Amino acid sequence: MNMFCYQCQETGNGKGCTALGMCGKTDETANLQDLLIYTLKGLAFYARFIFSSGKPFNLELKRKTGVIITESLFATITNTNFDPSRILSYTERALRHREALHKEYLKAVDAPSPVPGTGAANVIPESARWVYSSKKDLYQKSYTVGVLETRDPDLRSVKETITYALKGMSAYTYHAAVLGFYDDSIFDFIFDALFKIDTETQIEKLLPVVIKTGEYNLKALEVLDKANTAVYGMPSPVKVRTKPGTRPGILVTGHDLKDLEMLMHQSENQGIDVYTNGEMVLAQSLPFFRKFKHLAGNYGNAWWQQAEEFRSFNGPVLVTSNCIIPPDESYVKRMFTTSVAGFPGIPHIEEKNGTKDFSTLISLAKTLPPPAPLKDNEFMSGFGNKYLLSVKDKVIELVKDGKIKKFIVMGGCDGRETKRKYYKDKALTLPKDTVILTAGCAKYRFIKDISDTIEGIPRVLDAGQCSDNYSFLVFALELAKSLDIKDLNELPIEYDIAWYDQKAVAVLLTLVYLGIKKIKFGPTLPEFLTQYIIKNIKDKSDISTVYKE
Ligand code: SF4
User: Which atom of ligand 1 is nearest to 22's Cα?
Assistant: First the structure.
């Protein structure tokens, strides 16, 4: 059966992938992902009712539900999990959990104060009622749910915009939960938003949910920042090594710091090194990871260069989240996935009793040659909240003296398309009195080519992963406070966000929620975002593309 997916920037012909994803996602996986999302909507119906009914509830059950939903949504982000059997097992788990919640629902339905808007009778939506008896049923069902079920383009647009931002927010929420950090109101919001996109048919009623998604994504970013800094310490500026050593190595990509933590412990004193790749570079600036002598440096660039870079790395590669792309023969036998990442045929390291056993990777690494050097310059990273707030007064002085004229946030995700050359060209031709604030893998377009400073402040400040765009929002809010500015648009900060996957969509909505105008979101605007929705998500919101055909 045909698929339809248009959630990322590289969607087929700029319209939608219909036979095979440009990313390599098959129709089977795409349809099963649609079914998973549909199932989560049904789960959210019960969760919303039970945990908002006013009756006492079991917090552990609520968090378990929240983690099931956020982990599952995370798994459907572009380039995260291509394995249909894993997507199917997420759906089966959600359906089993739905049974458990249904029992709680039957107890709570007698509650004296039903959830506003649902009424005491609580008509149960189809997403929460459908049943199956075999895998074949699940496949059949997967052909009947999906994006195109919503016929009206603007209604579809508003629903999918919320869905994709929820996926991004779920990734951040799940990472924080893995480290034991929660804001339970985020789960309440996700339950409610999923219910509304499942059942609401009026665009006007969904538009406020778009803005709320941005608001709750800000909370999700804050919780993750708290989790990362509480567990691994405050990032501080560091020169990132890019020249590999002479010992064999393991390359870790993705975003999950907990996985890297476990691997660092298990691989210590084993005669091998561990390298970060992509957004895992954040670990290079965190005190916890810096204490390991065998954290050797960063190898490689953005996700789309992985085929060439994984090949020349020579050792095992561990993928902890997005991005994985279909691997070729030359390195597939030394690829491993863990957490939400998955690819058919690639061994997946499961968690058992709160830990993961990476001994297979470690043993394999010892038998393989060391990484071949890449032609890469060293670069600076680790400019998170702590650094930015420590230089805030100096920055204000430099701005007042006209020595810094502008900040430009050029964070987000990178991609394969040639039009993304824009970001490199732009960064390299910015006036010397402009400072670039970056995070995510978009930085690899320019970070190794700019090393000058303005009175000691580097002209490229990299905060780490895409979630660390949060540091720039904190910085903007603090600057505004110090300068007694009420409207963030009066600050000398521009936003030129590169997007590829759904985490960037969540960040976009947070900027819209904060009232930021004139956001550039490129290289091309999301196909799922109609002009009607852009114009109506917030008064005079102005989101434009950087790429003109
Ligand atoms: Fe196409 Fe992107 Fe969806 Fe992959 S994630 S199927 S490339 S729209």
Answer: 7
In the structure encoding, which two tokens stand for residue 484, read together? 């007694």
The size of the chain, in residues, is 549
User: Taking Cα atoms as reference points, which of 502, 504, 479, 501 lies closest to residue 489?
Assistant: 479
What CA–CA distance (Å, rounded) separates 176 from 402? 40
Contact 225, 467 (CB under 8 A): yes
How far does residue 173's CA lie from ligand 1's centre (Å)? 23
**φ and ψ of 317, to 5 deg:** -120, 130
- List residues near ligand 1 (CB under 6 A): 5-8, 10-12, 17, 21-23, 25, 30, 78
227 contacts: CB under 8 Å, gap ≥ 6 = 175, 176, 179, 180, 181
pTM of structure: 0.96
**What residue owns the CA closest to ligand 1's atom 3?**
5
What's the token pair of residue 435?
Answer: 């400072």
How does pLDDT run across 330-377, given as a tens digit for each residue? 999 999 999 999 999 999 999 999 999 999 999 999 999 999 999 989
Residue 338 · residue 349 · CB < 8 Å: yes
C-alpha 392/C-alpha 34 separation (Å) is: 45
pLDDT exceeds 70 at position 68: yes
Alpha helices in 146-202 (DSSP H): 153-178, 184-199
Q: Where are the strands (E) in 418-526, listed by range?
A: 434-438, 453-454, 457-458, 460-462, 493-498, 519-522
Bridge pairing between strands 453-454 and 457-458: antiparallel
Of the chain, the percentage scoring pLDDT greater than 70 comes to 96
Strands (E), 181-319: 238-240, 249-253, 273-276, 295-298, 317-319
Read off the DSSP letter of residue 119.
Answer: T
pLDDT in tens, 432-480: 999 999 999 999 999 999 999 999 999 999 999 999 999 999 999 999 9
Q: To which residue do tokens 């890449």 refer?
A: 374
Q: Which amino acid is at 99?
A: E
User: pLDDT tier at 109 (50, 70, 90 boundaries)?
Assistant: confident
Q: Helix or strand or coil: residue 61? A: helix
Closest by CA position to 317, among listed 248, 261, 386: 248
User: Exposure of 549 by Cβ count < 10 A (0-12 exposed, 13-18 middle, 19+ buried)?
Assistant: exposed
Distance 405 CA to ligand 1 centre (A): 39
Per DSSP, 419 falls in state: G
Give 375 Cα–ligand 1 centroid separation in angstroms: 31
Residue 16 CA: which ligand 1 atom is closest? 8
Parallel, antiparallel, or unpaired: how do β-strands 355-356 and 457-458 relate?
Answer: unpaired
